[in-house]
Amino acid sequence: GAVVSQHPSWVICKSGTSVKIECRSLDFQATTMFWYRQFPKQSLMLMATSNEGSKATYEQGVEKDKFLINHASLTLSTLTVTSAHPEDSSFYICSAGPGEQFFGPGTRLTVL
Amino acid sequence: EDKVVQSPLSLVVHEGDTVTLNCSYEVTNFRSLLWYKQEKKAPTFLFMLTSSGIEKKSGRLSSILDKKELFSILNITATQTGDSAIYLCAVGASGGSNYKLTFGKGTLLTVNP
């Protein structure tokens, strides 16, 4: 299957700082990538759809100024959590795929 | 609003048992239904189903889709402790120019030795 990588796999930051998470498709080109958030014991919630060369599409209730998405190339999308707060602590996962969606390994963010 | 409902939410069985996990959905512009297995990290892909009545099989796992009744089942035969995981059902639908997945809450399967 297709390979999607994420970096970093975990990050701890202080409240008020910004954190950037990268999602890469390693063996295919992805015009669209998806960003999800998963809280403990809950399912994946779609945050936004990242479109190469254009603005991301955000789901209802997701602040676009807080979760900045950039999809500058066909193999890389980045999610920046700006001015992070403890309630942003979560597991962030991206997905992409030529057909079915393959997930990156996820990034566990802890905001102190 | 698109909706995906999985049942049961949790299930405890003994090794060797057969389990059936259910997924029903209500979506606009259905394109596909996918099953994933999630252990400690991100979900791993199991199956993608687009046509009714065609069983997909991989080892002890199999899945089938009924587009008329809007549901899918995932069967696991001769369960092993390594099958313990959360099984996620997701439905892919088109919305404008976008294709997106809506996930169910998952079924937590525990297989005891």
H/I helix tally of chain A: 0
% residues in beta strands of chain B: over 45%
Calculate Rg of chain B over CA atoms: 14 Å
Tell me the distance between the termini of chain B: 41 Å
Low-confidence stretches of chain B: none
Instruction: Work out the oligomeric state of the chains in this entry.
Output: heterodimer
The strand count of chain A comes to 11
Distance linking N and C termini of chain A: 36 Å
**β-sheet strand percentage of chain A:** over 45%
Structural topology:
The complex is a heterodimer of chains A (112) and B (113).
Chain A: E1 4-7, E2 10-13, E3 19-25, E4 32-38, E5 45-51, E6 57-58, E7 67-73, E8 76-81, E9 90-96, E10 102-103, E11 107-111
Parallel strand pairs in A: 2-11
Antiparallel strand pairs in A: 1-3, 3-8, 4-5, 4-9, 5-6, 7-8, 9-10, 9-11
Chain B: E1 3-7, E2 10-14, E3 19-26, E4 30-38, E5 44-49, E6 56-58, E7 61-66, E8 71-76, E9 85-95, E10 98-103, E11 107-112
Parallel strand pairs in B: 2-11
Antiparallel strand pairs in B: 1-3, 3-8, 4-5, 4-9, 6-7, 7-8, 9-10, 9-11
Structure commentary:
The complex is a heterodimer of chains A (112) and B (113). Chain A is built from no helices and eleven strands. Chain A has strands at 4-7, 10-13, 19-25, 32-38, 45-51, 57-58, 67-73, 76-81, 90-96, 102-103, 107-111. The model of chain A has no long low-confidence stretch (mean pLDDT 91). In chain A, a hairpin with a 2-residue loop joins strand 7 (67-73) and strand 8 (76-81). Chain A has 112 residues and is mainly beta. The termini of chain A are far apart. With 113 residues, chain B is an all-beta fold. In chain B, 0% of the residues lie in helices and 63% in strands. Chain B has no helices and eleven strands. Chain B is globular, with a radius of gyration of 14 Å. Chain B starts with a strand and ends with a strand. The model of chain B has no long low-confidence stretch (mean pLDDT 92). At the A-B interface, strand 5 and strand 10 of A face strand 4, strand 5, strand 9 and strand 10 of B.
